[in-house]
Write a sequence for this structure.
């Protein structure tokens, strides 16, 4: 015969599955009356459900269902199909779960979290990250790690810094991260570009640039590139590192979706025996973008210069979030969330590729990511992009013009970035199918580039 404690646990779990409760669960007193038991028996049952990750508690408010939002957004719920934005869908944010770890952090460290701290960040989180990444073959040291207000802050500071190799130019892939390209233009930085396509880059051209240009660093996204969605193969990563060491060029590796990669797809940093890789990892895309937190691991020779730039730019980061993140990563909840998140994005990317393949009659050239958020599609050269995008907007479908991802706009030839970040599976299937129907009609109609008339 089951005891009252087990009966209550089973009752709550079954009612959650039947969606009998919207969010808040019955009070301790209500369940004690319902099952004719003591309050302590109900508290014990709720504690067990908290350990299972089914519910969470809020002081003076009660107990609430901890929903797995990753698998509850498969209806057509939006009034538009946003394939333009790289921002994650807010429905998947683990807000309720993370709130628990904010409470744990504050209860553990008290008022000290709200005072001034060290500019390099919360030391316990450094230790946790070193241990976490060592499991993946990435050897980082606590002394090399700093935290910044998102990846953009670290990238911007490095762009302004004078490196000890006395070089001042920056090499970026073409296409590349649009926000950073905007920063480089705004600061009038000295920039060179190297083309990158779905098959990678020309290593001979890279060597020529490393050898003959005064490059302080090469900014690259080796894994799940934005906007391409592709990754370099392992041999290419090793060759890039070899050339960087040979010609004294640093590599700024932006690993913004590190958790979504397969174990066989390694960061360049994992091969770095030369201390040439500046490794950057943000928590924005995979966790809570508004929290603005990134970790950067620096080669020993540039740690002190970065420390000074960071300190005078921002005295310290958000200690409360860093401490809460540390507690979260140490728990099993974080690994479970990441595992579910990878499945979530893998499924969405598979649907995107399936729809593209079903429309093979359009003969589109597109990248073929294994995971991540993005794919870059080359549209027919005779298509009038502005009119096509306007036509899509009229049908509430939004994609991102590829021109924003090229430092030199002349390099772009009718490309568009497709993002699966915001839409759910059904919205991707319906929206992308509709997009190709509109493209097909556009190519039949007059939405093509008109030949220019030369003025003599």
């Amino acid at each position: 015969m089951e005891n009252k404690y087990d009966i209550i646990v089973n009752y709550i779990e079954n009612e959650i599955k039947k969606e009998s409760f919207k969010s808040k669960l019955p009070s301790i007193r209500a369940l004690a009356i319902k099952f004719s038991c003591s309050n302590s028996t109900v508290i014990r049952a709720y504690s067990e459900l908290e350990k299972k990750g089914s519910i969470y508690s809020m002081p003076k408010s009660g107990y609430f269902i901890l929903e797995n939002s990753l698998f509850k957004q498969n209806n057509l719920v939006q009034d538009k199909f946003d394939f333009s934005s790289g921002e994650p869908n807010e429905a998947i944010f683990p807000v309720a779960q993370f709130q628990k770890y904010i409470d744990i952090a504050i209860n553990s460290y008290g008022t000290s979290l709200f005072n001034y701290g060290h500019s390099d960040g919360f030391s316990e989180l450094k230790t946790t990250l070193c241990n976490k990444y060592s499991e993946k073959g990435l050897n980082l040291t606590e002394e090399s790690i700093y935290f910044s207000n998102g990846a953009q802050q670290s990238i911007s500071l490095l762009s302004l810094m004078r490196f000890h190799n006395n070089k001042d130019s920056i090499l970026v892939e073409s296409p590349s991260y649009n926000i950073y390209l905007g920063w480089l233009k705004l600061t009038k930085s000295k920039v060179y570009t190297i083309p990158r396509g779905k098959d990678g880059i020309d290593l001979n051209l890279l060597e020529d640039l490393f050898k003959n240009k005064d490059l302080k660093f090469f900014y690259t996204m080796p894994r799940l590139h934005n906007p391409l969605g592709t990754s370099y193969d392992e041999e290419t990563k090793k060759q890039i590192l070899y050339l960087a060491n040979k010609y004294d060029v640093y590599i700024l590796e932006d690993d913004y979706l590190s958790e979504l990669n397969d174990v066989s797809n390694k960061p360049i940093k994992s091969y770095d025996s030369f201390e040439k890789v500046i490794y950057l990892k943000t928590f924005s895309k995979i966790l809570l973008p508004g929290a603005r937190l990134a970790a950067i691991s620096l080669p020993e020779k540039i740690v002190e210069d970065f420390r000074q730039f960071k300190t005078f730019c921002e005295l310290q980061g958000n200690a409360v979030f860093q401490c809460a993140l540390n507690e979260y990563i140490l728990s099993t909840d974080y690994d479970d969330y990441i595992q579910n998140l990878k499945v979530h994005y893998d499924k969405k990317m598979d649907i995107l590729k399936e729809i593209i393949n079903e429309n093979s009659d359009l003969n589109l050239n597109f990248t073929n990511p294994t995971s991540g958020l993005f794919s870059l599609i080359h549209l027919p050269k005779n298509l009038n992009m502005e009119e096509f995008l306007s036509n899509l907007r009229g049908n509430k479908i939004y994609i991102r013009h590829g021109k924003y991802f090229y430092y030199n706009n002349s390099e772009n030839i009718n490309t568009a970035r497709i993002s699966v970040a915001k839409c759910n599976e059904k919205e991707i299937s319906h929206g992308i199918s509709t997009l190709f129907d509109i493209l097909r009609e556009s190519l039949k109609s007059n939405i093509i580039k008109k030949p220019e008339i030369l003025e003599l």
The first strand starts at residue 55 and ends at 58.
